[in-house]
Amino acid sequence: MASGLSTRPAAGYLQCAPTLDVLAAQCGIDATGLARTVAAFNGHARAGRDPEYGRGETAYDRLQGDAEHGGSNPCVAPIEDAPFYAVRIVPGSLGTFAGLACDEHGRVLDAAGAPVPGLYAAGNDMASVMHGHYPSGGITLGPAMTFGYIVAHHAAGQALAMPATTEAAINADAAPASAAFNAASNAACACAASASSSASSVLQPQ
Known about the structure:
36% of the residues lie in helices and 8% in strands. Helix 2 crosses helix 3 and helix 5 packs across helix 6. It is globular.
């Protein structure tokens, strides 16, 4: 993963540095504290343990770990090889808080607002159309399914038609326009309804 990330210089969201001291300075945190935390983590990781958070203690955890990791615990490994990366973590409301800015086709946008070729996002990785609110249970699922549907079509060269939008309809904090989301959601629902209708007609008793 490090080699892939190193091809895109960190700016803002993702911090990258050749040493832990430099990383601490970039993040505005205590370098001694970071070094002490990493040293303690590494000591436990070499033994396949994570006493702080218990990662890898259940079969489910291990299933989600790195299958190619040679250690005794696929969920933890020593943090030893540069470059080192850091991401600021802040509390939010589930998956409706923040994410990558995307256009109506689910393409991730760069700092200039232009699509990054070949890079898409959906679900909790995408800036939410909920603008940080959580109006009801499952509110992350609809956008995830809708934009998954949209992204799959665009990546396959079969982009779905999107409605025209104005600048006023687009919120700078959440790139997908509400109008585009609604139209795409309707398209996804229509497709699902059509499939359901077809299945129902097949299953109807004669």
